[in-house]
Amino acid sequence: MSFRRFLLKRTLIAALLTLIAVSVIFATLRMLPADPFSGLVASGSLTPDEVDQIRAMYGLDEPIYVQYVKYIQNLFTFQFGISLTQQRPVGEIIIPALVNTMVLLLPALVATAIVSSLAGMYAGWNRGSWFEQSSIVVTTVFRATPIFVTGILFLIIFSYGLGWLPAFGMRSPLANPDGYLETYLSVDFLKHYLLPFAATVLFYSGDFLMLARNSVVERMGSEFLMLHRAKGLSEMEQLGRAGRNSLLPLVTYFALRTGMLFQGVITLEVVFAWPGIGRALVQAILNQDYPTVQAAVFIMALAVIIMNLTADVAYAKLDPTVEAGDV
Fold first, then answer.
1. How far apart are CA 4 and CA 1, in angstroms?
2. Using one digit for the tens of pLDDT, what is the confidence trace for 146-155?
């Protein structure tokens, strides 16, 4: 199978998976026992006639197949509509929350990918050393510990115990930044940023460390390293050659994990009250805010599927021994 056919096949699969994902969330929301306006009628805030008018305004009184067609058209043209509960465009809710999530998680993922991969390569090259054993134990403990537990421990120690760093939010209550630069490039933001950043780095460190370590261990007895050793290369130079040939699984995993970042880490965002996409999704689900939930899930699913496609393509391109049709 040629690479072009492989790419076309994977793209079609990605499009189909996206359609399935958004269809599932559409059906799930419509199967809920009540709609967002039932509570307003029960509390007396709205009359049944007023609720009928609102439902008509949002198109919820139309046949289900008509709602579905319009829903698909709007999603794939990025027209997310108006929030049912906040009465403003969904994009004004989702986009800032998504930016906040990416500002937190993407630097953390890049940092742990670089540091943990280098540490894993060194650990794999020095099998049986105290460094290998201790690094595996420490990173495995943090990976096995739910990230919200690590976050709570950090809050207890550094916020409530020592009082070094603030506990919640992305900025102080009195802060009123203007624009992205003032929001994300300030001392106040940095103080709020350090604890969730550290928790995220430690949580993901075990994956990259073990991938890098295992890849180097697999290549230690390979012929190309024996050749380099015969040429008189130093230990560090040999490690560099082994590490360079171990990048494929790391690049693939990084691409997959990057797609997952668009989901946010809901428990982490809740613990630190970080205004990210995961926390916004939870609030929208609790409020049965259909447009916001649909937009958030669509963005999350699309990001995961696109990055999975990127990982497949990268794997097929970077490893010449892999046939595209077998990826």
1. 8
2. 888 888 898 8
